[in-house]
């Protein structure tokens, strides 16, 4: 089955993305084009790269050049305050390796080290606080390299307290642990090493397959996308372990590896592809950007759209947690990050253009 979606901008030919089994029941997938309303202008923002929503609040995460990492707004655009001071003391963040949103608990989860997570709780209220040792397995870098798993810097928590991390060796893409760090199982299939082309060392594969992950509203399922390969995973709690289904449509392309005596390096070729981008989840769906064109072409198009030379548009695919495409949404700006209300009624997006810089738009999804 082929799913045909409109091109990302005027002048770009229609994309035909092979999506075998993605759509619901083989039916055509509706495309919804939306015009957003600016609710937070550029002069109220501080270089945000991520956005999250709980109830009537928005949380924008900024880069590390500020004294605090987060700005809190009402969904009508009023600024309510600043959160997450930068530092190394209690209740502070010195560095964020990765982050994600716990849809069930309404918490932001910050990976601050190998097997270490801090959690912002109380989102949607006037009483947020940062829990410093939400997860701390006490791992040291490199100590697991010869075992079944070599955990990466992606980590999240499911409904029963199971902690799931990415796994950087080929025994499985994900590793599930008890809350005190005991390995439960490994799950998820890596693509064949041969799909990366000639000369790819096994230890380098993880560099190109680091997942972006979101959970559903009851914490029983997760959705994960990969940027370099045309693939995604759906995961579910299955008794005392996790079960992962991998949808693998196309291998990575355009990764040129050079192996030397003591080290390896790589560069991206002209045929390096941009597939899935960021994602955000509601209680029942995952909203994922998808390109399916060479990364250089994508970058050029975004430059032209930000400059106003061609109409700006970003396409999102809406999946259920079984991996079926339910809808395609086209937003009227170049989007940096987005968040969706738990009930799928509203989408909030950080947009960017050369004239205004960053801004936040609200979209009605009903």
Radius of gyration: 20 Å
Strand content: over 45%
Q: Unreliable stretches, pLDDT < 50, 5 or more residues?
A: 1-26
Shape: globular
Q: What is the tally of helical segments?
A: 1
Question: What is the first-to-last residue Cα distance?
Answer: 28 Å
**Main sheet properties:** 5 strands, mixed
What percentage of residues falls in helices of 4 or more residues?
Answer: under 10%
Oligomer: single chain
Please tell me the overall pLDDT.
89
Structural class computed from helices and strand pairing? mainly beta
Order of helices and strands: EEEEEEEEEEEEEEEEEEEEEEEEHEEEEE
Total count of strands: 29
Spatially, the strands of the biggest sheet line up as 3-26-25-24-23
In a few lines, what is going on in this structure?
With 366 residues, the protein is mainly beta. The radius of gyration is 20 Å and the shape is globular.
Keywords:
366 residues, disordered N terminus, 5-stranded mixed beta sheet, 4-stranded antiparallel beta sheet, 1 helix, mainly beta, globular
Describe this structure in words.
The protein has 366 residues and is mainly β. 3% of the residues lie in helices and 51% in strands. It contains one helix and 29 strands. The chain has one helix spanning 295-306; strands at residues 2-5, 15-18, 31-34, 37-40, 48-54, 57-62, 68-74, 79-85, 98-102, 107-113, 116-121, 129-136, 151-157, 163-167, 174-177, 183-187, 212-215, 221-226, 230-238, 241-250, 255-259, 264-268, 273-281, 285-294, 314-320, 325-331, 334-340, 346-353, 357-364. It has a five-stranded mixed β-sheet. The protein is globular, with a radius of gyration of 20 Å. The two termini are 28 Å apart. The model is unreliable at 1-26 (pLDDT under 50).
């Amino acid at each position: 089955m082929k799913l045909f979606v409109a091109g990302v901008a005027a002048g770009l030919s229609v994309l035909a993305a092979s999506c075998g089994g993605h759509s619901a029941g083989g039916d055509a997938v509706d495309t919804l084009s939306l015009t957003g309303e600016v609710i937070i202008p550029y002069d109220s923002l501080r270089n945000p790269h991520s956005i999250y929503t709980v109830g009537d609040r928005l949380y924008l995460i900024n880069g590390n050049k500020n004294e605090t990492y987060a700005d809190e707004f009402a969904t009508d655009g009023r600024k309510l305050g600043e959160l997450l001071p930068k530092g190394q003391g209690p209740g502070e963040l010195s560095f964020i390796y990765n982050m994600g949103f716990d849809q069930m608990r309404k918490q932001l989860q910050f990976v601050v080290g190998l097997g270490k997570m801090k959690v912002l709780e109380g989102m949607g209220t006037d009483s947020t606080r940062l829990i410093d040792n939400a997860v701390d397995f006490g791992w040291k870098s490199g100590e697991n390299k010869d075992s079944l798993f070599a955990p990466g810097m992606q980590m999240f928590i499911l409904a029963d307290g199971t902690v799931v991390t990415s796994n950087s060796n080929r025994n499985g893409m994900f590793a599930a642990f008890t809350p005190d760090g005991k390995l439960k199982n490994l799950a998820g299939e890596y693509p064949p090493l041969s799909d990366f082309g000639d000369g790819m060392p096994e230890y380098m594969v993880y560099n190109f397959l680091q997942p972006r992950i979101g959970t559903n509203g009851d914490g029983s399922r997760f959705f994960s996308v990969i940027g370099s390969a045309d693939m995604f995973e759906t995961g579910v709690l299955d008794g005392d372990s996790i079960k992962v289904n991998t949808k693998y449509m196309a291998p990575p392309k355009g990764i040129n590896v050079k192996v030397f005596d003591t080290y390896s390096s790589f560069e991206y070729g002209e045929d390096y592809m941009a597939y899935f981008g960021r994602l955000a989840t509601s209680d029942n769906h995952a909203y994922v950007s998808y390109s399916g064109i060479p990364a250089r072409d994508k970058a050029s198009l975004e430059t032209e759209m930000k400059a106003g030379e061609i109409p700006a548009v970003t396409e999102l695919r809406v999946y259920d947690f079984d991996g079926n495409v339910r809808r395609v949404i086209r937003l009227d700006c170049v989007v940096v990050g987005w968040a969706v209300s738990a009930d799928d009624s509203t989408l909030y997006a950080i947009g960017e253009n050369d004239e205004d810089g960053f801004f936040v738009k609200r979209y009605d999804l009903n």
